[in-house]
């Protein structure tokens, strides 16, 4: 399992994440389900901006038939519902084999990811 914790939504941060996860995906053994946790909880309002959209689409197109799960964890707060809706719209563009789910608690995300014995 790979875990990414985001402290900001700056271009350099997103670019570094995209580069790293693409490298991890490229090397992932097909026999093992891919599991990733993207933790945005330090960010009170996640901005689904064109830069993030581009990196997600680019990453999603890499090895689309690799089975697995990706959990996104968002901070609970006044903007959580709006962020979840925007993330779901963004993730719906992915036509790959990896399941995606959004959580407001990391423990729940880890339990769900742990069940990825596909």
Strand fraction: 15-25%
Number of helices: 4
Coarse morphology: globular
Helix content: 40-55%
Please tell me the total number of domains. Answer: 1
Distance between the termini: 14 Å
Number of strands: 4
Question: What is the CATH first-level class name?
Answer: Alpha Beta
Q: Topology as H/E string?
A: EHEHEHEH
Assigned CATH architecture: 2-Layer Sandwich
Radius of gyration: 13 Å
The low-confidence parts are: none
Main β-sheet, spatial strand arrangement: 1-2-3-4
How does this structure look, described?
The chain is globular, with a radius of gyration of 13 Å. The chain has about 120 residues and is an alpha/beta fold. The chain has helices at about 10-25, 50-60, 80-90, 105-115; strands at about 1-5, 35-40, 70-75, 100-105. Helix content is about 40%, strand content about 20%. It is built from 4 helices and 4 strands; from the N terminus they run E-H-E-H-E-H-E-H. The protein starts with a strand and ends with a helix.
Q: What's the SSE blueprint?
A:
Elements lengths: L1 E4 L5 H17 L6 E6 L10 H11 L7 E6 L6 H12 L6 E6 L2 H9 L4
Parallel strand pairs: 1-2, 2-3, 3-4
Quick recap:
It is built from 4 helices and 4 strands, in the order βαβαβαβα. With 118 residues, the protein is of the alpha/beta class.
């Amino acid at each position: 399992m790979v875990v990414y914790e985001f402290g900001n939504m700056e271009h350099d941060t997103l670019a570094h994440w995209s580069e790293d996860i693409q490298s991890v995906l490229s090397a992932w053994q097909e026999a093992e389900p891919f599991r990733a946790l993207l933790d945005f909880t330090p960010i009170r309002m996640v901005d689904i901006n064109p830069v993030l959209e581009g990196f997600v689409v680019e990453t999603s197109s890499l090895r689309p038939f690799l089975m697995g799960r990706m959990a996104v964890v968002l901070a609970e707060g006044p903007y959580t519902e709006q962020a979840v809706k925007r993330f779901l719209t963004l993730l719906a563009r992915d036509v790959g084999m990896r399941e995606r789910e959004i959580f407001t608690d990391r423990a729940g995300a880890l339990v769900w990811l742990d069940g990825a014995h596909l």
